[in-house]
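Ligand-bound model needed. FE2/S2 (inorganic) cluster.
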Amino acid sequence: MSKLLSETEKTTIIDQNGSRQENILNILLALQEASAGGYVDQETIALVAKKLSTTETKVFEIASFYSMIETKPQAAYVLEVCNSAPCHFTKSDEVSGWLEAELGVKRGEPTSDGLFSFRFTPCVGACDVGPVIKVKDAVYGDLSRDKVKELIQNLKKSK
Ligand code: FES
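Prediction:
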């Protein structure tokens, strides 16, 4: 997991992503990606508001509106289950059910050890191997219940 970002590092990320209100979603996603807990905290929201000459309330509203932006600390591994149409037809709902059974938590809730959570995500560009799960930059496709179990075991071992 990455370290806490300094204000200078956050400012650099904002600048690299255009530093304008029309780029706010990309800015928030980039800050979330680089953050230690996989979320955008209040301090970061305040900085974005200042840099983009808008209000914290507006930035928070946008962050809360988009399901891919998190405003609370996330599990170490967030398993993103694609539920766009092609994957939906190749059983993304079933994958969600398998994860719920394997991890013992509902979608969006972290496991008690803070290691895993899972959520739906739009297409990750691997439609030909659906159903798929994305974990950080890696995509796992052609999933079966056994493959989902194996993925969880492997992630546990690598921690
Ligand atoms: S629809 Fe699932 S990866 Fe494209």
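Residues 7-65 form one domain.
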